[in-house]
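Quick one, probably user error.
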């Protein structure tokens, strides 16, 4: 039976600036925290960096032509803050703006709607030297950056996302240290402080975007994972609530409900420092919530009572991607329904979903990725079921348009539906690209 998606469903693909652009020293771009992190021995696989990446900075016309051929209606991209403000704040670099001007015009010429994320992790290093997201003033610099970008592009860009994945910006970058700037604080206190700065930046930027970009839609992108108990024991079920509070509600509740989960705040005792009026700034009306989903979370009780996190369980014998992430499409359905019931968003977009697979070019010159085709098929099916159950899901952006720099994993993990030969920069559409092309064309699965 064929599953029909709504007529105006937004089929898209997603990427991010540092992962594809390259040209890190060109046209006056400043240093980002990812340049510094990648240059620090031992931080990324093989010492890989985004210095060249997919060379999209120069090859964007070719990449957009491929998107046109794919048939997507929308493209989610991010702007690199250090291209716009090489010193993080103050002086605006017109050459940086000019690049995004060209990019947006090329997309519109090809009838592809740009969905623009302002912050997909490439903070100017100079701001990190001043405390980064642990420094409350960074929220004002972010608002200034949002102002300049939306003044420049707001006549043509009508879909904005402030931040990509606050959990990664805060927890993975200031707690676990696996992402730039590589700070470690297992107590979750610094990540909590970072969350508050990020969210003040979000709250300050939303009205600015609305003022500069007439009739635009504004949202934020949260990575969420539905949480399950390992067994039916009381302890394991209590662990579900604990995990959900820290990985999902800590990030969703402030922006969507105007509050932090009390039980996490209590454990943190005193951080973040919430000044009068902060929660009102943070709690802005949003037109949509973007959800990135890659896996579920399974937990058990009996963890460290001082930790905000319970014990994560690795499900045995599960089907897994190259990231070692469990493949569990039902988790996407459960998550979409939960967000619908708990937060009542006007609109949900899946702003990222996809998988890394061990792709190789075969002697016939193609890349056959049947496991990615199945992954996408099964997740589209779960999304369709959620739509039929009432979720206001209006779009789906596959991560990623093309293989790219996968952060600490460098170029070792391939998430693209287009293969990139990093030696020659040749793009080869994979079988999953052709599968997706068919879904978009028919509007059904
Ligand atoms: C998400 C990121 C994205 C990409 C995918 C695989 O966490 O937003 O940049 O790396 O994971």
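Nope, works fine. Designed sequence:
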């Amino acid at each position: 039976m064929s599953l029909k998606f709504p007529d105006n469903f937004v089929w898209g693909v997603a990427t991010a600036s540092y992962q594809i652009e390259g040209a890190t020293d060109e046209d006056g771009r400043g240093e980002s925290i990812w340049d510094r992190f990648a240059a620090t021995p031992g931080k990324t696989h093989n010492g890989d960096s985004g210095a060249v990446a997919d060379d999209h900075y120069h090859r964007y016309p070719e990449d957009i032509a491929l998107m046109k051929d794919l048939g997507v209606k929308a493209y989610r991209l991010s702007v690199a803050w250090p291209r716009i403000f090489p010193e993080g704040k103050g002086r605006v670099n017109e050459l940086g703006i000019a690049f995004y001007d060209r990019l947006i015009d090329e997309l519109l010429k090809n009838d592809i709607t740009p969905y623009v994320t302002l912050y997909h992790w490439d903070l100017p290093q100079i701001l990190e030297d001043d405390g980064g997201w642990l420094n409350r003033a960074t929220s004002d610099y972010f608002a200034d950056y949002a102002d300049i970008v939306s003044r420049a592009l707001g006549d043509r860009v009508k879909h904005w996302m402030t931040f990509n994945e606050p959990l990664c910006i805060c927890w993975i970058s200031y707690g676990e240290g696996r992402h730039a700037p590589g700070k470690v604080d297992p107590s979750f206190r610094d990540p909590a402080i970072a969350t508050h700065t990020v969210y003040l930046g979000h709250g300050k930027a939303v009205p600015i975007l609305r003022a500069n970009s007439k009739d635009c839609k504004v949202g934020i992108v949260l990575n969420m994972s539905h949480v399950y108990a390992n067994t039916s024991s009381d302890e394991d079920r209590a662990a579900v609530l604990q995990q959900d509070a820290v990985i999902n509600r800590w990030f969703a509740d402030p922006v969507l409900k105007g509050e932090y989960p009390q039980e996490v705040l209590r454990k943190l005792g005193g951080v973040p420092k919430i000044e009068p009026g902060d929660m009102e700034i943070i709690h802005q009306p949003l037109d949509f919530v973007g959800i990135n989903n890659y896996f579920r979370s399974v937990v058990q009780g009996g963890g460290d009572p001082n930790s905000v996190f319970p014990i994560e369980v690795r499900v045995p014998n599960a089907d897994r991607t190259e990231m070692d992430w469990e493949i569990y499409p039902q988790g996407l359905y459960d998550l979409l329904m939960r967000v619908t019931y708990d937060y009542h968003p006007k609109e949900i977009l899946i702003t990222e979903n996809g998988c890394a697979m061990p792709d190789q070019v075969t002697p016939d010159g193609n890349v056959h990725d049947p496991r990615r085709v199945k992954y996408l098929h099964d997740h589209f099916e779960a999304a369709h079921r959620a739509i039929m159950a009432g979720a206001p899901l209006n779009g789906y952006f596959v991560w990623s348009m093309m293989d790219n720099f996968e952060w600490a994993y460098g170029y070792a993990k391939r998430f693209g539906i287009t293969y990139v030969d990093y030696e020659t920069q040749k793009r080869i559409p994979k079988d999953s690209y052709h599968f997706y092309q068919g879904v978009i064309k028919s509007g059904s699965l």
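The chain has 15 helices and 13 strands.
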